[in-house]
Amino acid sequence: MRRQYSHVSDIFPTLLELIGISAPTSRNGIDVKPRTGSSMAPTLRDASAPPQRTEALYEMIGHRGFYRDGWEIVTLHQPFTPFSDSEWELYDLTNDRTELHNLAESHPEKLAELAAAWNDAAWDGQVFPLDEGTGLKYVLRPPETEIVQQPLSVWPGTPTLERWRSLQLIWLSSFQFQAPITVTEQSLGTIAAHGDQSGGYALYLLEDRRPTLVFNDGRGALTLLAGPSLNAGEHLLECSFDAIGGNTWKLSLTIDGVTVDEHPEVPMLYAMSPFEGISVGRDPRSPVWWERYETHGSFHYNSAQGPVLWIPGPKAPDQPEDVVGLLRMIGAKFE
């Protein structure tokens, strides 16, 4: 048991010292930024050793904190409210390690000193802009990432596409995917899948060569669209998700240019759903359709198929055209 203050950033330099190696100064010819931690190895060896760290900066989803020489200031920030010094609480960790007694009113000078120190450290540590609760930082992307919203072909045998990359093809938008397949008398399996038990969609060729689109809303409800039995030969299957407003999609299944089934409304999938990315020719790991997984596993498609093409469409009609601009405007009210 030790009472000296340490921070998570101290773990790396501590391990380096205990192992007996130095931190690299460059990687692949690029200089590494100086580390901010301090080794706590001396306090591990000697319980009476002085603390190796005297200051630490904190910030997470708008909550702020700063430690210096036994004193700590913290805030519990409420989303969509202004940031101000009135939020700060002050604690003497030397005598109150569990932070039960807020000393902000009785020690205003110490509070002001640490608040100013937090501000300086935050600029040095690239903490700004603060997260005011709008979620702007989750949608703000550099211009070069626009390429991930372009049509994408995924070939059979490609490892499952990463979750975020897959989500950009469908997020808050209309989209469709097109799957060219070869059908034989024995054809069966997963043509394409995106998601898992917590929500997603998948296209299968089931018994009797019937194309079937399964949508899992993540709440326990499955929606199935099915077409007629296919003749042997080449076919093009298309699944369309039309964003009609109200955070919903209209589904349709098309075979060789003819729409064979539709469903008027299913809830859109958001952020953490689909959690698993796109797979072609199989539905591995956590499946979109659990009942089929129980009987057939990842259900590989057993015949030839070409690359499946995902085509992102327009945003839903009730979605703002400029999401980033809207969030900036909301957040500016709390600066």
TrEMBL record:
Region listing for Disordered, in residue ranges: 29-51
Among InterPro entries, the record links this protein to: Alkaline_phosphatase_core_sf, Sulfatase
> Which family does the entry's similarity section mention?
Belongs to the sulfatase family.
| The protein's name | Unannotated protein
What is the species of this protein? freshwater metagenome
